[in-house]
Amino acid sequence: MPKAKSSFPPDEFDVVDPTAPRSPHRAPKTRAQRLVPFLVAIILGPLLAYVVVTAVSTGELPGRTPAAEATGGTVTPSVDPNLDDDLTESPDETPDSEDPEASETQTETEEPEPVDPDPATRVVILNSAGINGLAGRAQGILRDAGWTNVSTGNHSGDLPGSTVFYAEDDEVLLASAEAVAEELGIDRVELDPDEAGEAITVILESDLTT
Questions:
Q1: 146 Cα distance to chain centroid
Q2: Does some domain include residue 110?
Q3: Does residue 143 fall inside a structural domain?
């Protein structure tokens, strides 16, 4: 298309500087130039998302040197001082602790093991009540209870009540005397070698209801 001719004479505005831009419009972009922003977005988008997710989940940016390595020292974990009372176990609450007073009380309340009487112990039953057959009836009671060495006789004297005497301070002999007294319904059991003789002597008075 032929350039239009101006009817005006050329002036200073018609002089064109060869170094100045000739037009305010740029040349059209090539296909490669148009694809560059999309390629950059495709490459940098996932990388930026990875950086954001890592920073949120770990609190550290990828590639960032931890505080301990950056400073060349060690990182001391912070401890809540309010947890000291919960984590520190009181000496009084430890399973191995023992209460000395409780142990002493338990020792004091322990009772000795009972001693069994000896049914073969010699037992002499003396009738001091003047009631015929009283000693024989007592002898039968003991024999029925398993006592194997029981004899009878008479006694002259006056006791406050029927009494079982045993000859010496012996646990088995004492247990035997108490067992004899229980079988005959006698309440009095006394240590008296002179009255007991060899082992156990039972003196029956009129208070006996056997």
A1: 51
A2: no
A3: yes
Q: Counting beta carbons within 10 angstroms of the beta carbon of residue 210, is it exposed (0 to 12), middle (13 to 18) or buried (19 or more)?
A: middle
- Segment holding 204, helix H or strand E: strand 200-204
81 within a domain of the structure (yes/no): no
- Domain extent for 150: 125-204
pLDDT at residue 70 tops 50: no
In a domain, 168, yes or no: yes
**Which residue in 201, 102, 75, 80 sits closest to 149, CA to CA?**
201
What are the tens digits of pLDDT across the range 138-189?
999 999 999 999 999 999 888 899 999 999 999 999 999 999 999 999 999 9
Q: Which CATH number characterizes residue 153's domain?
A: 3.30.70.2390
Query: How many other CB atoms sit within 10 Å of the CB of residue 126?
Result: 21
Residue 94: strand, helix, or coil:
coil
Count structural domains, the chain: 1
Does the predicted model carry a pTM greater than 0.85? no
CA dihedral 198, 195, 122, 176 (to 10 degrees): -110
Strands of 188-191's sheet in order across: 150-154, 123-127, 200-204, 163-166, 188-191
Among the listed residues 120, 190, 97, 194, the one whose alpha carbon sits nearest the alpha carbon of residue 155: 194
